Amino acid sequence: MPFFKVTLIRSGIGLSHKKLGVLKALGLRKRMRTVFHDVNPAIAGQLMKVKELIALSTSDKKLTRRQMHEKRQPPTGFEVEKSRLVTKEETPTGAVLDRTSRRSMNLCFGVDMI
Amino acid sequence: MVRGQPTQLEHQASPLTHPPYVEPDRKRPWRISKPQKYRQRQRLQRIDRIVDTIESALAKRGMTSQAVEIWKAEMPTETEMPPRDKYTIFDKKHKGYRKGIHKLPKWTRVSQRINPIGF
């Protein structure tokens, strides 16, 4: 299912209250904030109202802010081929281990050192 | 009243006491510069791309949007617009009824593409 990926690249400061309200409704409170929305006529109408302020593309996945942040991180430079204590099934918090995810790596090492 | 601190009246920002700041017309050059014109074209093209993205995304799901349809019917694209419309705007008070688009308040964040009927 496709989504609109919307980023606010121009501030709404000084514009009409209607446009500011649309930005608020879309969840665009600060510049460079990215949000994902369903593709439907209601959202399309809202995007048309603020089209001068946004960057727009379509995306197959709806990413959370955490996922977008982790996507931007540089590679760790190493891979864990095998862990003695923590395997994919045994992750204490139930999180799926991903080698590009720094947070998961830290979690992995944290348990390893105990 | 404590000196230096805002009074109660100053807290209430009403349109009468705090009109939105608009740069005085006399401070803006009469002529729009070449880089300004270039960036204006980029902005117009970007908006065209955004409208196309919305339209194609809806079309893939078999939907349409009234806002998009009205825009497509009424507004020319950047390539269809004559330079006169890209860089100048109708103004009843100006000589020749045209003035530079850079005189329009918030001109980089608003869409201004068509003229009144007869102009």
From TrEMBL, chain A:
Protein name: Large ribosomal subunit protein uL30m
GO molecular-function term, one example from the UniProt record: structural constituent of ribosome
Every Large ribosomal subunit protein uL30-like ferredoxin-like fold domain range: 4-54
Species whose genome carries this gene: Drechslerella dactyloides
GO biological process: translation
Pfam families recorded: Ribosomal_L30
Subcellular location(s) of the protein: Mitochondrion
Keyword Transcription regulation in annotation: no
Keyword Mitochondrion recorded: yes
Gene3D superfamilies noted in UniProt: Ribosomal protein L30, ferredoxin-like fold domain
GO cellular component, one term: large ribosomal subunit
Family: Belongs to the universal ribosomal protein uL30 family.
Major localisation: mitochondrion
Cited SUPFAM superfamilies: Ribosomal protein L30p/L7e
Function, as annotated: Component of the mitochondrial ribosome (mitoribosome), a dedicated translation machinery responsible for the synthesis of mitochondrial genome-encoded proteins, including at least some of the essential transmembrane subunits of the mitochondrial respiratory chain. The mitoribosomes are attached to the mitochondrial inner membrane and translation products are cotranslationally integrated into the membrane.
Keywords: Mitochondrion, Ribonucleoprotein, Ribosomal protein
From TrEMBL, chain B:
Keyword Ribosomal protein: yes
Keywords attached to this entry: Ribonucleoprotein, Ribosomal protein
Region (Disordered): 1-28
InterPro entries to which the protein is assigned, alphabetical: Ribosomal_mL60
Record bears the keyword Ribonucleoprotein: yes
GO MF entry, a single one: structural constituent of ribosome
Bias (Polar residues): 1-15
Protein's name according to its UniProt entry: 54S ribosomal protein L31
Organism: Drechslerella dactyloides
One cellular component term from this protein's GO annotations in UniProt: mitochondrial large ribosomal subunit
Xref: Pfam families: L31 (PF09784)
